[in-house]
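2024-03-11 09:14:02 INFO queue: dequeued item RNA methyltransferase, len=390
2024-03-11 09:14:02 INFO validating residues
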Amino acid sequence: MTVIIRRRERVEMPPAEELQFFATTGKGVEEVLARELVMLGMGNVSQETGGVRFQGDMAACYRANLWLRTANRVLLPLVEFACQNPQELYDGVRTIVWERWLTPELTLAVDCNLRDSAMTHSGFVALKTKDAIVDRLRDHFGRRPSVDTKDPDLRVNVHLVKNRCTLSLDTSGSPLDRRGYRLARTEAPLRETLAAALLELTGWDGTVPLVDPMCGSGTIPIEAALKAGRRAPGLLRQFGFQRWPAFDRTLWQRLLDEAREEALATLPAPIIGSDMSARAVATARENCERAGVDCLIQLAQRELADFTPPPGPGILIVNPPYGQRLGEEEALKPLYRQLGDVMKQRCKGYTAYVFTGSSELAKCVGLKATRRIVLFNGPLECRLLKYDLY
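2024-03-11 09:14:37 INFO prediction written
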């Protein structure tokens, strides 16, 4: 049973069929993720900074991990309590019925995020949390589980902010951007979850062409094909909850079967990706095949100067390089000017979106953006710029 602790008092959470979850996401993507959760039928969807809370049973947890395109992780909060010193941390962690989630045969890892708190060393907080967990399990089973920081059966998340500690289970395991199709990567690849967020922010629904003339390893076209083809992004991978003692294999298999039945064999409009690099296009082809969407995407090696999309209306979306080292910006200005020329001369009827981390390079496009959306690519503040190409 899950509990919240305040001033050492235990308050019972709702029963298992009414668990609270928190799906994390990148800054600026919260509203997009909230819409995803509503479309999936999740209960009590509530947007917060850095993620979205929702309510449901473990089937909802399984479905969220399988279908969410813009979430980084799905956490199951277990307990919240005031925490200003190591003893309060240890006592709070020990109140949880860890034997429900972990046995001595399984492995454990603890991740810690802390800010503005009396305890300032994340490694020490993680270690103290681990001690409390294994001590309780040793008292219960007579044996303790082992720690595996790289590939644990159960990953515990400690969030300590302003002396309030929230302890959660990571139901996802590895982050949700690791779909399983992108084994080969080009330089500076766009995370899958961010690519999916960009597509959602364009409003593209699959009924008009989508083109990416600088597709790199193919992440944007692949995420577009998964979306338009109704393909669950989690079909190719494993999740943390599959290694938990109470994992319901029958339920999970039913959800997988339903997801596979949802998939479309063809799309109403083309998805086109191209790149000047033969190596990048070869990598994109491999990734498309692994994702099972190679039949839904048209890929070609093509110079930007030679790019011509199908007749509009349509969506052009591109993530050009935006050099982060001294001198790189200047070298990229001709590329951005060429991109602007192609958009003006060959993409009439399209709505174009350029995702860049450089305001100086964006000026070189030579068009006035009708919308600017602030997003973060890792720690780097970026803009998704919208251009209406009449």
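2024-03-11 09:14:37 INFO annotate: Residues 1-16 have pLDDT under 50 and may be disordered.
2024-03-11 09:14:38 INFO item closed
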